[in-house]
Amino acid sequence: MALNLSRLRMLYELERLGTVGAVADVLHYTHSAVSQQLSQLEKETGHALLEKAGRGVVLTDAGRTLAGYAERILTLADEAESALARTGPVVGTIKVASFQTVLVALIPETVAVLAERYPDLHVEFIQREVLDGIESLLDHEVDVCIGEQFPGTRPIGGRGLVRRDFHTEPLLLVQPTKGEFSAPLPLAQMAGFPWIIDPKGSAAGQFTWSVCQSAGFEPRTFIESPDPLLALQIVGQGRAIAILPSLIVGRFPERVAVRALPGDPGRVLFTATRPGRENHPAIVAFCDALAEVTKRLQAET
């Protein structure tokens, strides 16, 4: 029995995503083409892998068994590709999903380091919020996702991901240098101050809300935005306060006054890859350069 890797991936994606339509979208096939390939896989194995459920299909016991092996086989194929790549120079193109803070504070210097060390390695970036970036990684749209983990939030990771934590940085209270919102008051006395906060559904937004609620109040939202540069600009103009990571604040220290938060909380920066790809030389080169630049810039702030 010869098993086709492309068809095995379709079966694995069907288990992961739940519908043939979703598989077709991720793999850029038509719905009928996916159905035909899965039918061919059933013929190759001699087992019914799918059964109807309403207007869709679900995996049979045999289908779930093969999907588990498919995941392992696909990972092993990626491991083999990575091992072969390690026999030659670091070349090629990788795609990276990242959120704004890292793109602003870390990526320019990381790209400069890579250009000097590996001139034939090309890195392409797309801006994604962390959970969207993880989905892009699982859908094979990108090779690496850069993420962040805030204190008290649900851990990001699990099946289909290899996570590498590369930096923990302080989260800071950022105030104007002058004006009515510049006084270094205890946090509990800032209940009436205007705040710039990430969207409440985001990890950063949830963290700011939890800090304020722990101090006994709900923040008065002046601007809800995920843009840290906007927050720095508005705080620097004396119009609000915010909680921001030290890396982005450290790039523009003259604009604001910075204070530690109770308990000195920090966010963890990490890279995520798919299993079997974490040791690919191009991915290792990028992740190592990113960690090196982050460490150096943090030491300079």
TrEMBL record:
Family: Belongs to the LysR transcriptional regulatory family.
Ranges where the HTH lysR-type domain occurs: 3-60
InterPro entries to which the protein is assigned, alphabetical: LysR_HTH_N, LysR_subst-bd, WH-like_DNA-bd_sf, WH_DNA-bd_sf
Domain of life: Bacteria
Keywords per UniProt: Activator, DNA-binding, Transcription, Transcription regulation
UniProt keyword Transcription regulation present: yes
Sections of the chain in a coiled coil: none
GO MF annotations in UniProt: DNA binding; DNA-binding transcription factor activity
Name assigned to this protein: HTH-type transcriptional regulator
Any one annotated GO CC term: protein-DNA complex
Pfam families noted in UniProt: HTH_1 (PF00126), LysR_substrate (PF03466)
Source organism per UniProt: Corynebacterium vitaeruminis DSM 20294
Keyword Transcription in annotation: yes
